[in-house]
Amino acid sequence: MQKNTIELISFELCPFVQRSVITLKKKNIDFKITYIDLANKHDWFLKISPLGKVPVLRYEGEVIFESAIINEFLDEITGDALMPSEPLAKAKQRGWIEYASQVLVDQYLASTSTNKDDFEKYSANLNQKLTRLESEVSDQGYFTADSFSLIDSALAPLFTRMNILAKGFNQHFLQGFPKLLALSKNLLEKDYVSDSVISDFEDVYINYLKTNKAFIANQA
Questions:
Q1: Nearest CA to 177 among 115, 124, 126, 133?
Q2: What gap in Å lies between CA 212 and CA 114, rounded to an integer?
Q3: At what angle do helices 15-26 and 150-169 cross, to 10 degrees?
Q4: Which residues, including other chains, have CB under 8 Å from residue 157's CB and lie 6 or more apart?
Q5: 0.85 exceeded by the pTM?
Q6: Residues 3-15: pLDDT tens digits?
Q7: Helix axes of 116-136 and 178-188: crossing angle, nearest 10 degrees
Q8: H or E element: which one contains 216?
Q9: Are 134 and 141 in contact (CB under 8 A)?
């Protein structure tokens, strides 16, 4: 693919953007990334992003938005598919990708809660969803089997953040979920996952939580 025919519009901390970066890197697609400040959105961005959210992908003068759609598009325009071709298997994977999006929302709400009550409420919601995921994930290294797929792209940003929360704030959300822990370890060891965030992501993420007075970041 011609270099820089793809541009990804991003925000440094967005897990949904990270999904698309993982897919781009996994498939060795040339791209450039443009970071914006979501608190100060430029008119040009609002013009191309109907929902005012990232990620947005620009491809040969056209615009695609929503991470799951972007990832399927990237998969379809390249070889070595990361999505099943059989309709039922594809539909099931799409469903779990959507489920993963809701897990990411619960993780965000739990980690950014500013008081104990909210933290416990959203942590309980997150734990419930993780329990369901644990019952679905394979024990073969990846979510569905022994090879990487788009559901792994969807889940990896969750593990990136949980790993930092475990190290930085002693919040072990994956404790008691051995298959998810194994999946997390496997994915975080991959270059296309570890290199899918900015180089100082851990520091920026921790500072974001502290600056926004997150309950888990202000216990010391």
A1: 133
A2: 8
A3: 120
A4: 15, 16, 18, 19, 22, 104, 196
A5: yes
A6: 548 999 999 999 9
A7: 90
A8: none
A9: no
Q: What phi and psi, each to the nearest 5 degrees, are found at residue 33? A: -120, 135
Q: How far apart are CA 25 and CA 10, in angstroms?
A: 15
d(CA 93, CA 79): 19
Dump pLDDT digits (tens) for 36-65.
999 999 999 999 999 999 999 999 999 999
Q: Name all domains of the chain by residue range, CATH numbers in brackets.
A: 6-76 (3.40.30.10), 87-217 (1.20.1050.10)
- Cβ-based neighbours of 62, under 8 Å, separated by 6 or more: none
Please pick, among 6, 8, 14, 193, the residue that the annotation labels catalytic: 14
207 is catalytic: no
Residues 152 and 110: their CA atoms lie apart, in Å, by: 22
State the CB neighbour count (10 A cutoff) for residue 211.
Answer: 9
